[in-house]
Specification:
454 residues, alpha/beta, Dihydrodipicolinate Reductase, domain 2, six-stranded parallel sheet, 33% helix, globular, disordered N terminus
Length: 454
């Protein structure tokens, strides 16, 4: 195996190794980074890829967002283990977007930053003939969905691929939850659920003050302006809605008509000036968000939201909460349950799990505990090709799936996995048939929740 390819595959750490195309004499993919304001833009380049040119052209306005992005890339290039070899070519100035569209210095645009122009960036990049790898959310308000639909239609006409960065599909416990739900002898069939007890629940807790790539993360001030970042009900929930679709109806084409929004609400996280300064280094709230400061001097950020809906008759609940900072030793958390006629599949990530995701299987069907354990072990045996060494051990109300440590690679590494998967699709010249309609259905779901929350 090519040395560089080996380095990427090992770092991805997944038992189901991604079959990257063989390295060519001249890399086929040339990245462009457009207006990078979010650290996810840099995480795409946290690994080298043999088919990607190391020279990356960055088009952005001059300022702290660009400076932070370049520092992160330099950090990957200079780290002691697995250093990358990126060469950033910067085009800074107020005309950055038009220059990128005109100069044709690459063929794939990476978009992760201020979301107020995300849909416009995607559409105009496609119109210029570029492929697009976009961070979430692709849409933050209903008007964005109109632009996104146009972008996908034009992408099909022009033969380019638009893809969103759904990292959570590469989290090991989520993959196992999905695969076990496809084994009737273990899971039975997915329940329909009710609004009070949905068949699928996905809950996520995030933090404004955190550490990324071993360093304290500095948030740009606009991140706390929901007109630029997007509200929580349409941001992180993109991942959760995606997982509902991906797990409940794998590889099936979904349409907006399959979605029925039942209830939605939003509420703010309140930040003091001192907390805002710690997360951004800015000692005052910018003028653009001072209208969101309450009488107590706290900034109210509508980062929290939850909604319930049905997807082809299956009840689902999605919730996201943003706190300022996690307790010592903790981090972002995820809770997920899929209710089957024979078993529940539950991911927990709390203090008891040392803040690492752990998958539990609870038997509530007619099988005895001993018989169910045999069925579960037989089911996991079918997945040993994906994750050698899977095992189970008794847990409260059921069984814990024990995943070998080498497969718990962490959220940041999933960005390289998504990018590698996208490179496969580029080499093939197409996405799976269900991806584009399901991206649009996902965005439709978010916009329905956005409307109803008001």
């Amino acid at each position: 195996m090519h040395a560089a390819l080996l380095r990427v595959s090992c770092w991805l750490g997944c038992g189901a190794a991604l079959a990257l195309p063989a390295s060519a004499a001249t890399p086929a993919v040339k990245l462009l980074t457009l207006d990078p304001g979010h650290f996810h833009a840099a995480l795409v380049q946290a690994a080298d890829y043999p088919q990607v040119d190391p020279s990356v052209h960055v088009y952005a306005p001059a300022g702290p967002d660009l400076d932070q992005h370049l520092k992160r890339i330099d950090g990957y290039n200079t780290r002691a283990e697995r250093p990358t070899h990126w060469q950033e070519v910067v085009h800074a100035g107020p005309d950055f977007l038009q220059r990128m569209l005109d100069e044709k210095m690459g063929n794939v645009v990476v978009i992760s930053g201020n979301n107020s122009r995300k849909a416009e960036y995607i559409l105009r990049s496609v119109q210029a003939g570029y492929n697009v790898l976009s961070d979430k959310p692709m849409v933050t308000v209903p008007a964005d969905l109109v632009k996104l639909k146009q972008a996908f239609a034009e992408a099909q006409q022009r033969g380019v691929l638009v893809y969103d960065i759904m990292t959570e599909r590469h989290e090991t416990t989520t993959i196992l939850q999905r695969e076990l739900s496809r084994l009737p002898e273990v899971f039975g069939t997915l329940e329909k659920g009710t609004p009070e007890q949905p068949a699928i629940t996905k809950e996520s807790v995030h933090h404004y003050c955190k550490t990324v790539s071993g360093k304290p993360l500095l948030r740009p001030p606009w991140f706390f302006d929901v007109t630029q970042q997007g509200e929580g009900i349409v941001d992180v929930t993109t991942h959760l809605v995606d997982l509902v679709q991906w797990e409940a109806f794998p590889e099936q084409i979904l349409q907006p008509g399959d979605v029925n929004m039942l209830a939605a609400r939003r509420w703010p996280t309140k930040l003091s000036a001192a907390q805002f300064a710690k997360a951004t280094t800015f000692k005052e709230f910018p003028a653009s968000i001072k209208n969101c400061v309450n009488a107590a001097g706290e900034l109210e950020v509508y980062g929290n939201g939850k909604f319930t809906y049905t997807l082809r008759g299956v009840h689902a609940k999605v919730s996201v909460i943003w706190n300022f900072e996690a307790p010592a030793g903790a981090g972002d958390t995820h809770y997920s349950i899929m209710r089957g006629s024979a078993a529940n599949l539950i991911i927990r990530q709390g203090k008891e799990q040392n803040y690492q995701p752990v998958l539990y299987v609870e038997n509530h069907g007619s099988a005895s505990a001993a018989d169910f354990a045999k069925r579960l072990q037989a089911g996991l045996a079918k997945l040993q090709g994906l994750y050698p060494g899977l095992a189970i051990k008794p847990a409260d109300k059921g069984w814990e799936v024990v995943v070998p440590a080498q497969f718990n690679i962490g959220h940041e590494a999933h960005f390289a996995q998504v990018t590698a998967k996208y490179l496969q699709y580029l080499a093939a010249g197409k996405l799976p048939a269900w991806e584009v309609p399901n991206m649009l259905t996902k965005c439709h779901t978010l916009m329905e929740a956005y409307r109803l929350s008001r």
